[in-house]
Amino acid sequence: MNNIGFKIVDKDEEVVFTILKEVQSQNCPLEIGLYGESQKVRSFCKTLDSPLNIHFNHIAYSLGEVEKYKTLFFKEIEIAKSLGADYGIHHMAKYPMTAQSGYQTALIKEVLERMQIVEDFALQQDFEVYIENTFESINFYQKVFYGLKERYTKKLNFCFDIGHAKVWSGDDFKSWMVFLSELKSLGFKLHFHLHANRGLIDEHLSLLEVNDMGFDGNDGVFSDLTYAQMFQEIQDTFPDERKIFEVKPHLAIENRDFVKQLLRTMKI
C-alpha cells in the first residue's frame, strides 16, 4: 500500500515538514498544491525520491482558461519539473457548467476545443495533465473522454475525487467505479483523491473525523459500502495508481495510518 500518500497545501511549515519527513522516510507519494508554498518547502521537495505530482493553482485559473493564462500554465509546469513531478492535476472549470439538456451538444464541443488547447500546450511542454472531476456527472465526463480518445490526445488523463463525486455528480460510487475501469480500458491513466464527507458539502474530512462522528460512509445514497470498503475496492481494482488523501494536514499522517490499519483488518 505504498502508493497511498499525502497532499500539502498548508502554510504552517511545521506541519508541512512533519509530512515531508514522513514522505522521505516512507518513500510514499506526495502531491504539492501550487497555492503559495514557500521556497523552503520547494527546496526540500527537490531532495525527495518519492513519487511526486503537483496540483495546478485552480484558484487562479482553470483548464478552460489555459489559452488566456498560458504564461502561468507554462510557469507552473516549469516549477513542477524542477520539483521532479511527473504530472499535474487541474480542474476543468472554476464553476459548474450548464446542466440544461438543450445546451449539452454545444457544451461538449466547446469543452473539447478548450481541452485540445491544453493538449497542444502539454505536448509542447512534454507534461501530462490529469483532469479532476468537479461539478459534473459521469455522463459529461464520458462524452468528454470519448471525444479526447477520438482526437488521439496523449497528455490528458483523469483524476477521480471521491468527495466531489459524492456531493456534485448525482452518480453513485458503483457507477463511478465502472466508469473508471472504462477509462482505464480506453488507455487513460488514473489518479485518486480520497477523503470523506456527509454528502452535503465538500468537507474533506479524514476517516478519523467521520469515525468520531459515528458515520462510516454507508448512507444508502452514494454507496451502501463503508468508506473503508470503498477505499479497499479502489485499491483492489486499481492497485498501481497513486492515491492521495486530501485531509487536514495536522491529521494527515494519523489518518493514513488509521486507514491502512482498517484495510489490513479487512484482509484478515
Question: Could you explain the architecture of this structure?
Answer:
It contains ten helices and eight strands. It has one domain: Divalent-metal-dependent TIM barrel enzymes (TIM Barrel). The two termini are 15 Å apart. With 268 residues, it is an alpha/beta fold. Strands 1-2-3-4-5-6-7-8 form an eight-stranded parallel beta barrel, surrounded by six helices. Helix 9 crosses helix 10.
Concise account of the structure shown:
The protein has 268 residues and is an alpha/beta fold.
Rg for CA atoms: 18 Å
Order of helices and strands: EHEHEHEHEHEHHEHHEH
CATH hierarchy: architecture: Alpha-Beta Barrel
Total number of helical segments? 10
**What is the CATH H-level superfamily?**
Divalent-metal-dependent TIM barrel enzymes
Strands side by side in the biggest sheet: 1-2-3-4-5-6-7-8
CATH topology: TIM Barrel
Number of strands: 8
CATH class: Alpha Beta
Query: Biggest sheet: strands, sense, closure?
Result: 8 strands, parallel, barrel
Distance between the termini: 15 Å
Structural class comes to alpha/beta
**Proportion of residues in β-strands:** 5-15%
Indicate the overall shape: globular
Question: Roughly how much helix do the residues carry, as a percent range?
Answer: 40-55%
Question: Please, what is the average pLDDT?
Answer: 95
